[in-house]
């Protein structure tokens, strides 16, 4: 890496850190307000502090199951260290949350595409799922921008054929980013679109193919059947495709996002998560809860409107930003 590239990368990292800090501002403000109330007038971490802390984490949409795990970790630490002051509580919380997320950390999957040699033989295929309104198509556009900006060849497949808006929106994103979009229009066979998109990816030596899918069908059985069919036809072109099933969730919906995640993990094999709209909510704690409860790695987080505001999720960077005063 040359000196110019080093400074360029350093500038990009600082800009991403600033975007993350600003995107989590509402969550941080709410989080620390509640944490201050939990320890007000107390010197040591006792049962009363832990009770208040538990309430605070639940209100931050960390989720009950995950909150219980965090509290248990802190109780064990208090019992081991005998004396823990409330002044140390934010440091302890930070360390225990990072440790909890560590089990679901992964540098594989689509985030590793940037580290792969160009055109490694066949495209890495990502099938993107999620209900309407969570920012699924926008996330695909931002992903395409991320890969395309890194010099990767990208193909998009508009297989959400139940909504004309979804097809049109993806085509617009393709034009903005400068990547081809395979589309058959509305009310066409989604599996046929996915097949053609993967085939196009193979023909042009693409590095990644990203397939949009319908956000909602009549019921879970229909959803499962449709997604299974899309998988089967893609495997006729590339055995093992899709290599990643990325579930997009709206972070601003808090625990409703977790309920959506549960439904989709029953309908298909979700292997990674993208959590969007964190900049407009005080419910950023849901990132911690969903990852810990589902045992599925968070791959990306959305912290703003710009194309560069879909960031790779790093547990330590995220938690440090969350606790930054």
Automatic annotation (TrEMBL):
GO cellular component, one term: cytoplasm
GO molecular function: GTP binding; GTPase activity; signal recognition particle binding
EC number(s) from the headed UniProt entry: 3.6.5.4
The keyword Hydrolase is assigned to this record: yes
Chain sites annotated for binding GTP: 130-137, 212-216, 276-279
Name of one Pfam family that matches: SRP54_N
Enzyme superclass (EC): hydrolase
Subcellular location: Cell membrane; Cytoplasm
Catalysed transformations (reactions): GTP + H2O = GDP + phosphate + H(+)
A biological process term (GO) from this entry: SRP-dependent cotranslational protein targeting to membrane
All copies of domain SRP54-type proteins GTP-binding, residue ranges: 297-310
Record membrane topology: Peripheral membrane protein
Keyword Cytoplasm part of the UniProt annotation: yes
Keywords for the protein's UniProt record, in alphabetical order: Cell membrane, Cytoplasm, GTP-binding, Hydrolase, Membrane, Nucleotide-binding, Receptor
HAMAP family in the record: FtsY
NCBIfam families in the record: ftsY
Similarity remark: Belongs to the GTP-binding SRP family. FtsY subfamily.
Function: Involved in targeting and insertion of nascent membrane proteins into the cytoplasmic membrane. Acts as a receptor for the complex formed by the signal recognition particle (SRP) and the ribosome-nascent chain (RNC).
Quaternary structure and interacting proteins, as annotated: Part of the signal recognition particle protein translocation system, which is composed of SRP and FtsY.
Protein known as: Signal recognition particle receptor FtsY
Name of the gene this protein is made from: ftsY
């Amino acid at each position: 890496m040359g000196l110019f590239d080093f400074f360029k990368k350093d500038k990009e990292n600082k800009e991403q850190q600033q975007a993350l800090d600003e995107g989590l501002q509402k969550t941080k403000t709410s989080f620390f307000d509640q944490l201050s109330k939990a320890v007000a007038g107390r010197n040591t971490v006792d049962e009363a502090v832990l009770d208040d802390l538990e309430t605070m984490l639940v209100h931050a949409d960390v989720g009950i199951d995950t909150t219980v795990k965090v509290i248990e970790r802190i109780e064990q630490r208090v019992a081991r260290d005998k004396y823990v002051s409330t002044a140390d509580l934010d440091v302890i919380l930070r360390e225990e949350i990072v440790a909890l997320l560590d089990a679901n950390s992964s540098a594989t999957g689509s985030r590793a595409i940037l580290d792969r040699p160009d055109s490694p033989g066949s495209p890495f295929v990502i099938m993107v799922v999620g209900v309407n309104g969570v920012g699924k198509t926008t996330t695909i556009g931002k992903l395409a921008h991320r890969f395309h900006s890194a010099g990767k060849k990208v193909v998009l497949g508009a297989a959400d054929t139940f909504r004309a808006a979804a097809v049109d929106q993806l085509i617009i994103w393709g034009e903005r980013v400068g990547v081809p979009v395979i589309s058959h229009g509305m009310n066409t066979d989604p599996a046929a679109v996915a097949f053609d998109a993967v085939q196009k990816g193979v023909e042009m030596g693409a590095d990644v193919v990203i397939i949009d899918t319908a956000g909602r069908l009549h019921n879970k059985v229909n959803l499962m059947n449709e997604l299974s069919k899309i998988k089967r036809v893609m495997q006729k072109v590339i055995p093992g495709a899709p290599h990643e099933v990325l579930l997009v969730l709206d972070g601003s919906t808090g625990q409703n996002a977790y309920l959506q995640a549960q439904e989709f993990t029953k309908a298909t094999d979700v292997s990674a998560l993208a959590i969007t709209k964190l900049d407009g909510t005080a419910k950023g704690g849901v990132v911690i809860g969903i990852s810990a409860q589902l045992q599925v790695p968070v791959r990306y987080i959305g912290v703003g409107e710009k194309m560069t505001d879909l960031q790779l999720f790093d547990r330590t960077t995220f938690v440090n930003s969350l606790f930054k005063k």
